[in-house]
Design goal:
Helices cover 30% and strands 18% of the residues. With 317 residues, the chain is of the alpha/beta class. The chain has a single domain, classed as 3-Layer(aba) Sandwich (Arginase, Chain A). 54% of the residues are buried.
């Protein structure tokens, strides 16, 4: 009897939809893993179409599509097996969201990320709108310097709008203010943006390297990855609207002219090879705007591939 005949077949449509059908850990003081996935189903920071509160659930369900077998994921192009069983991934559920209370909800998200870091695992946070990045970055206080790679259609560098400083148009401004954030690489920024000209000027003054999709394509993924300072510990925040809505329509603020799948994948692969990736979030999946479900499948596929690249670079075989 081989491994494939042992136990349950456990097809993707069977069972509970944890991320990748990996084990669920409900006690955040008992995380023993290399990767811990946290849902942040918060979308009170949106300025247009809500619905990203259902992002974590939809991405988890989509991720079951890639849960076949026990031998990892073999890639014939790279002649490599990614995410073998030696890479321990757990799903720790969702941060509790208190309706209309951004402060409490963000604090609960931060607590989840802090628990993952305390366990020595790599945090993977599924949003939720992009404001969930704010408590994620706050959780890295005392963890050493980090550089942020943002893949997004929008700069998200609004300082304050009618007194609101923690909406989904502000996370990169809040991040740049943190003393442990050494800089930002902001890629995919294009078209009419929620951030005015003064925000772009402030971003550059605070250390941002800003590239549009067309600028990225002119340079290529390897060159863009090399623009991230050598030796930087990198946190990746990926807004699904960084992709073209032709392949990712399920988001609240779609912007045409975005990335295609392999452009983002190749950038992430180069970053994983050249830098120490210390965390990530993927945000703004709003599944109700995509009846085909392809947006959440794209999100799950990107996350799983990126995790594969990270741990392959760390020597997992």
């Amino acid at each position: 009897m081989n491994d494939y005949d042992a136990g349950r077949l456990n097809l993707p449509f069977v069972g509970i939809s944890t991320f990748g059908k990996r084990p669920y850990v409900g006690d955040w003081s008992k995380i023993e893993a290399d990767v811990a996935v946290l849902g942040a189903p918060f979308d009170f920071g949106t300025q247009f179409r809500a619905g990203a509160r259902f992002g974590p659930r939809s991405v988890r369900e989509a991720s079951t599509l890639f849960s076949f077998g026990h031998a990892g994921a073999y890639d014939h192009e790279d002649d490599a097996t990614y995410l073998p069983q030696s890479v321990r991934i757990v799903d720790i559920g969702d941060a509790d969201i208190v309706h209309t209370d951004t402060t409490k909800s963000h604090a609960n998200i931060r607590k989840g990320v802090e628990a993952i870091l305390a366990a020595g695992a790599l945090p993977v946070v599924i949003g939720g709108d992009h404001s969930v990045n704010i408590p994620c970055i706050e959780a890295y206080e005392g963890q050493g310097p980090i550089h942020i790679l943002q893949i997004d259609a929008h700069l998200d560098f609004v300082d304050s709008r009618h007194g609101v400083k923690v909406g989904h148009g502000s996370p990169m401004r809040r991040a740049a203010e943190k003393p442990w954030v050494t800089g930002l690489t902001q890629v995919g920024i294009r078209n009419v943006s929620s951030t005015a000209r003064d925000g772009y000027e402030a971003a550059r003054a605070m250390g941002s390297d800003i590239l549009s999709v067309r600028q990225f394509r002119a340079l290529g993924a390897e060159v863009v990855a090399a623009r991230i300072p050598a030796g930087a510990r990198v946190y990746v925040t990926l807004d699904i609207d960084g992709f073209c809505p032709s392949i990712a329509p399920g988001t609240g603020t779609p912007s045409h002219g975005g990335f295609l799948y392999y452009e983002v994948l190749e950038l992430l692969q180069h970053v994983a090879k050249t830098h120490d990736v210390v965390g990530m979030d993927l945000v703004e999946v709003a599944p109700d705007y995509d009846p085909s479900q392809s947006t959440q499948i794209l999100a799950a596929q990107v996350l799983l591939n990126f995790l594969g690249f990270i741990f392959h670079a760390r020597g997992a075989r």
